[in-house]
Amino acid sequence: MSSSTSPALSVPSVDGGVLEGKNDDHGGVIVEMTNEPLDPVVYVSLLKASLSHWEQQVLVVQEKSGKFRGTGVWKFPTGVVDEGEDICDAAVREVKEETGIDSKFLEILAFRQSHQSYFEKSDLFFVCMMQPLSEDIQPQEAEIEAAQWMPYEEYAAQPFVQKHELLRIISDACLAKKDGTYSGFLAVPTTTGFSKKNAYLYVNTRGLARNSL
């Protein structure tokens, strides 16, 4: 984390017990400060609470069309992989298109296979963990009604999430990932067969020998 001021005693802007901050260009957070005195112990307590709050924010959208139109349901950005596009690249593109947020692919947390889906074909649905690289949201006008950063607990508490078995299990996996008890699948660059084409192998690297990657 980075700060925009020196460590002199000062009062930060506080909103509901959480410091007001904004992302910098290096993966940190800039905390806006004032010049009134503050006990260091109080500041440390506020800072710890703020770090926990920032780490648990997720990017969610409300859609303008489809079955979610007008329902008030907040959901993760979603989309379809283009022909010839890797999963990790598609996730970055879809987040950018729907919200204007630049992001970095980290892991596949889970996936689901269903049959007789689009055009009577099998469908693979991937849940990807992303790292935001920007913060200013610019919703896609054609498809997105609204987009915002939301505390994860607020997203998970939505009745739609709790009543939908698939979403509830995904929510549990995300919480386990946050707590450090769950590992997803990293995108490891590799080549395929005799063609030697570049490709990604999505694999859980925990326990693998270092020289195998």
UniProtKB/TrEMBL annotation:
Species whose genome carries this gene: Rehmannia glutinosa
UniProt keyword list: Hydrolase
Residue ranges occupied by any Nudix hydrolase domain in the UniProt entry: 37-174
SUPFAM superfamilies: Nudix
Entry protein name: Nudix hydrolase domain-containing protein
Sequence similarity: Belongs to the Nudix hydrolase family.
Region (Disordered) location: 1-22
Entries under Pfam families matching the protein: NUDIX
Classification via PANTHER family: NUDIX HYDROLASE 2, NUDIX HYDROLASE RELATED
Ranges annotated as biased composition (Low complexity): 1-14
InterPro entries reported in the protein's UniProt record: Nudix_hydrolase, NUDIX_hydrolase-like_dom_sf, Nudix_hydrolase6-like, NUDIX_hydrolase_CS, NUDIX_hydrolase_dom
Superkingdom, natural source: Eukaryota
TM regions (residue ranges): none
